[in-house]
């Protein structure tokens, strides 16, 4: 039975950066913008899982067109809260992106390496257009020149969890975005 107080991990947070309500409102705005921008285009959404899973699920339910959805899995070797090395695509998409208008969705734009690599790959496969949508943008950490076309929230340079984002694969199910108490990063 779910606890009436919400997910138990909420008490693991030191502070909340983006509340559940703020996420909901911003996703409604992003959905309206995307409905407008893609009104006359056949859209293919590509979610970079696992991180983009929850954001994509909520965003797509704001969208009106009979779009198609595919997922790919990108991975960098993670050491604690830092990605080490170049991102690799470890699970390819099933749909053909040739001549398609592709919207890439990810949880967070951090160094920019993942989205730069995946956007480059999809362009090289002949997509008609490639745009990117991220829930969070941590501008201070950018290592390659890359900006997203649609951004939910700019956040400061802190490692965050929740709403799809993980620390060691945990906390993705938190309904908000927050910073863990230091003792949980140390665990
Ligand atoms: P990149 O550094 O922009 O390539 O982002 C790589 C991936 O690192 C993102 O898709 C996230 O999965 C992960 N990541 C970056 N910053 C955070 C964070 O603050 N919390 C959780 N995951 C993060
Ligand atoms: Mg990710």
Key features?
Rossmann fold, binds inosinic acid, alpha/beta, globular, 6-stranded mixed beta sheet, binds magnesium ion, 187 residues, single chain, 4 helices
Written description of the protein model:
The chain has a domain of 127 residues: Rossmann fold (3-Layer(aba) Sandwich), CATH 3.40.50.2020. The longest helix is centred in the first third of the chain and has 18 residues. The chain is an alpha/beta fold. Strands 4-3-2-5-6-7 form a 6-stranded mixed beta sheet. It has a two-stranded antiparallel sheet with strand order 1-8. The model has no long low-confidence stretch (mean pLDDT 92). It binds inosinic acid (IMP) and magnesium ion. Magnesium ion (MG) binds next to strand 5.
| Derived structural class | alpha/beta
CATH architecture of the domain at 29-155: 3-Layer(aba) Sandwich
Spatially, the strands of the biggest sheet line up as 4-3-2-5-6-7
Structure ligands = inosinic acid, magnesium ion
Q: Main beta sheet, described?
A: 6 strands, mixed
* Helix percentage: 10-25%
Topology pattern, helix = H, strand = E: EHEHEEEHEEEH
Query: What is the β-strand count?
Result: 8
- Average the pLDDT over all residues and give the rounded result: 92
Strand content bin: 25-35%
Rg from C-alpha positions? 16 Å
Instruction: Note the overall shape.
Output: globular
Number of helices: 4
Instruction: Give the low-pLDDT segments.
Output: none
Q: Give the C-level CATH assignment of the domain at 29-155.
A: Alpha Beta
The N- to C-terminal Cα distance equals 27 Å
According to CATH, the fold-level topology of the domain at 29-155 is Rossmann fold
